[in-house]
Amino acid sequence: MSKNAIWITGAEGRLGSALLELLKKDTNNKVVGTDMDVDITDMDAVEQSMKVYRPNIVINCASISDADYCEQNIVKAFKVNALGVRNLAAASRSLNAKIIQLSTDDVFSGKNSGQITEFDIPDPQSVYGKSKLAGENYVKELNPKHLIVRSSWVYGAANEGAKEDYFTYVINHAKSGTPFQVPLDRIGSPTSADVLASFICCLLDKTEYGIYHASCEGMCSRHEFATAILALSGYDTQLAQGYFSVENRGRISILLENLMMKMTEIYTMPQWFDELKSYVDKHFL
């Protein structure tokens, strides 16, 4: 197999860390990971990095994903999640490189019932969702060799100093024995960074393009997710105290259907609970 030259941006985040670890196991890959050391919002910096790394695949994991921060910092959110993606898409096309853009279920409103496929029309309601959709559009417009991978409720280990994910949030409360409140009415499909990275790796040498949904199969509430984390890690499940959140009443949760994955038969995502158990066994037991 020919060697891939891969540039991962946002390599210190949850998914970036998992990808870097997985890809470096294959000696056929030449992998470079960058984070804050390359400012993707600076076109000159992106073009210079392209010249130095000369990748044939760019995987963009760089993002501002804190929804509350995005609401309060619209310019910064769009600068990273849209302008930065524009720069990477244009620069990767100049080298005829494939770009894999990581996106989110937040590009949908959550107002429609049922599972959402890659063929449903996005309708983001938050600044975060709108900025991520803008990034998707830049990728589609500027580089025909693109893959957009949307996922949901991504959890997983990241480098020290990275933003706390939901899994770590639950474990930290468990370690201190501190009860915490968890919504009973927020529904989704928890997906580990490990399994998402595995799916992305399977795409590298395939001539697949377009949009793919990639979330674990099945669904649960945030409360069910929290109690499963506690139980599998050997902590008291009573620490997770369920409640109905006012802001979520009347809102239908977003459930991604991995339709393209099933049609192409290139990968099968596990059930969310099975993957959570595998993640706990691998990282914490």
- Count of separate DSSP helical elements: 10
SS strand fraction: 15-25%
**Count the strands?**
12
The H-and-E topology, N to C, reads as EHEHEHHEHEEHEEEHEEHEHH
Order of the strands making up the biggest sheet: 2-1-3-4-5-10
Characteristics:
alpha/beta, six-stranded parallel sheet, two-stranded parallel sheet
Structural notes for this entry:
- It is a single chain.
- The protein is of the alpha/beta class and 285 residues long.
- It has ten helices and twelve strands.
- β1, α1 and β2 form a beta-alpha-beta unit.
- α1 packs across α7, α4 packs parallel to α5 and α8 runs parallel beside α10.
What can be said about this structure in brief?
The chain has 285 residues and is α/β, with parallel strands linked by helices. It has 10 helices and 12 strands.
Draw up the topology in text.
Elements: E1 4-9, H1 14-23, E2 29-34, H2 43-53, E3 57-60, H3 67-72, H4 74-94, E4 98-104, H5 127-142, E5 146-151, E6 154-155, H6 166-176, E7 180-183, E8 187-188, E9 191-192, H7 193-203, E10 210-213, E11 220-221, H8 222-233, E12 240-243, H9 259-264, H10 272-283
Parallel strand pairs: 1-2, 1-3, 3-4, 4-5, 5-10, 6-9, 7-12
Antiparallel strand pairs: 8-11
